[in-house]
Amino acid sequence: MSGQELVTLNVGGKVFTTRSSTLKQFPGSRLMRMLDGRDKEFKMVGGQIFVDRDGVLFSFILDFLRTHQLLLPTDFSDHLRLQREALFYELNPLVDLLNQEHVLQPRPALVEVYFLSRNTQAFFRVFGSCSKTIEMLTGRITVFIEQPSAPALSSNSFPQMTLLPLPLQRPSYHDLVFQCGSDSTTDNQTGIRYVSIKPDNRKLANGTNVLGLLIDTLLMEGFHLVGTRTVSSEDRTECYSFERIKKP
Q1: Can you tell me the distance from the alpha carbon of 86 to that of 82, in angstroms, rounded to the nearest whole number?
Q2: What is the per-residue pLDDT for 204?
């Protein structure tokens, strides 16, 4: 393959390299005129064609040019902006796809809250089909652990306690894990984990109270409860399922 068959684009700071034939598939598009030098809006800078547009959205456009298919992530919510970019490049087949009802119809966002209460501890795992929902909850939920802050002055005085924030566990972009209640530490002392969920300032250690506050948070974000079930009869893990219709 000769070097002239490859084209490097700098779209809004993101660099793409592809075949010129990939960009020339639709003769009436601006990409065709860009390569022919007929569209003066596109400038050659350092061996790259600079395009002052959204580079993230262009990745979906380039994928469409390569595969002739429109495959978007399940939590993609920028249909109208992607349609605007397709109109800018004058890619009519892509515009037609984005105009189709099955692409622009509302998509539900799903959240599942798994709750397990065992003795003095409660365990939570939250799964969301939309990673933005999990990022929202991660920014609002804080777990604190109670630890002695200074040695006791005498054997009869109580140690002063302080609350230290703990990071939430994020097994993936789509879920988070945390717990509350009494926690046995390595030095055989009992620490208590509290959970705070903004904008509520309370620090709660009771798992049922934390569950109620978490459900209230999801309801205020537009989710509604669609069902509950017992996942395991042995440990009595409960699952609460929520759904929210997302409009593109």
Answers
A1: 6
A2: 93
- Long-range contacts of range 86-95, CB-CB < 8 Å, 24 or more positions apart? 86/61, 88/30, 88/53, 89/29, 89/30, 89/31, 89/61, 90/26, 90/28, 90/29, 90/30, 91/26, 91/29, 91/31, 91/61, 91/64, 91/65, 92/26, 92/28, 92/29, 93/26, 94/61, 94/64, 94/70
- Contact assessment for residue 168 and residue 176, using Cβ atoms and an 8 Å cutoff: yes
Structure token pair of residue 65: 């040019």
DSSP class of residue 200?
Answer: -
**Bridge partners, residue 126, by sequence:** 113, 176
Is 5 a residue whose pLDDT tops 90?
A: no
176 confidence band (pLDDT: 50, 70, 90): very high
Check residue 201 and report its DSSP letter. Answer: -
64 close to 88: Cβ distance less than 8 angstroms:
no
- Are the C-beta atoms of 85 and 218 separated by less than 8 Å? no
